[in-house]
Amino acid sequence: MIKYISYGFLALSCLISINSIYSVQKKQPRTLLLEALEKNEFEKAEQLLADGANPNAKYENMPYIVYFALHGNTHAINILLMHGVDINSKNNDGRSAVTYAAAQGHIETLQEILNANPAYLTDDRWYGPHHTAAGAPSPNQPLIIRILHEYFAPKGIAIDVHSKSQMTPLMNAARHGRLGVVETCLELGASQYCQDNQGKTAIMHCLKGMENQGMHGKITSNQKLEYYNQFQGILTLLSRNPETRSILCNSAKQSARDIAIQSKQSSNWDAALSASGVSPFSRDRVAPARYTFTHLPTLSAYFPRNYR
User: Fold this and answer.
1) Model confidence at 214, in pLDDT bands (50, 70, 90)?
2) Last residue of a domain, one of 117, 134, 162
3) Shortest CA distance to 291 belongs to which of 242, 239, 241, 248?
4) In which region does residue 32 sit, left (phi positive, over 0), alpha (psi from -120 to 50) or beta (all else)?
5) pLDDT of residue 10
6) CB-CB contact of 194 with 171 (8 Å)
7) pTM
């Protein structure tokens, strides 16, 4: 018995030691360079860099370039870029400076970073700047999506770039109720026919988002109304297409029309059809022969391997 207790204490002490080592490795110290940049003491920061401070150091598991992209400190990023920072560095979640600047809606910061010619980088889910920005709440997101498209499209990254689960930016925007982003994606040529790895199209993601609206903690009635208006606007836009409305199916062989009925959103669906000039819901009830669900041909057509 004593022998087993001793083994138990030994195992516990080893676990505590490993955890202590991990904690030390995880927490990076605040450097003089970081503090100078945070306080906008840029002359001091430049002097520290000239004296050998590391521009690629990390804080809170974020390289400085990523940290200041998150906070929208364009001047700090400019100084780091002038001193050889790695523009393509990522944090532990695989997110780059481009992704954070885009997600936070920092237009000036994003443009400064793009001027340094970064690569298209993604996290473990293959979510890149387009996906993250499309679902973010900043009012700047439609312009952010346009800026990203203008920069990355010539490099072979289309507006329909797919994540690991074959989600597109349009799907993510529809899922989160970002009407302005949906409009921008459609203007830039985003396809409503794309399906994720469960066969869901953008309009199906919109219906799911409508079903979940208001489930974001405590929100006011005005906020709930705003959520509804955004989703209803997206549903109106996407319901104009008869194939995505009642022909394309998910892996459960449900069309968008079926999902609307199942989730008790028939009134929202009918209102969207009326607003978009489509025949009433009752006339759309009988759908033609449906497409069977198939995955998209290959991810590489949308997501070149050298950008993963």
Assistant:
1) low
2) 117
3) 248
4) alpha
5) 47
6) yes
7) 0.80
pLDDT surpasses 70 at 287: no
User: Amino acid identity, residue 77?
Assistant: I
- Asked if 155 and 118 count as a contact pair (C-beta separation under 8 A), the reply is no
pLDDT in tens, 39-72: 999 999 999 999 999 999 999 999 999 999 999 9
Task: List the structure tokens of 149.
Answer: 């498209």
Over range 218-241, report the average pLDDT.
85
Residue 41 CA, distance from chain mean position: 32
Residues 86 and 169 placed together within one structural domain of the fold: no
Closest among 235, 222, 223, 226 to 263, alpha carbons compared? 235
For residues 199 and 73, state if they share a domain: no
Return the structure tokens found at 35.
């503090």
Classify burial at 40, counting beta carbons within 10 Å of its beta carbon; exposed 0-12, middle 13-18, buried 19 or more: exposed
**Gap between the Cα atoms of 162 and 262, Å rounded:** 28
Is 287 found in the same domain as 202? Answer: yes
Give 110's contacts (C-beta < 8 A, 6+ positions apart).
98, 101, 102, 144, 147, 148
Longest CA span, the chain = 80
Query: Which run of H or E residues covers position 58?
Result: strand 58-59
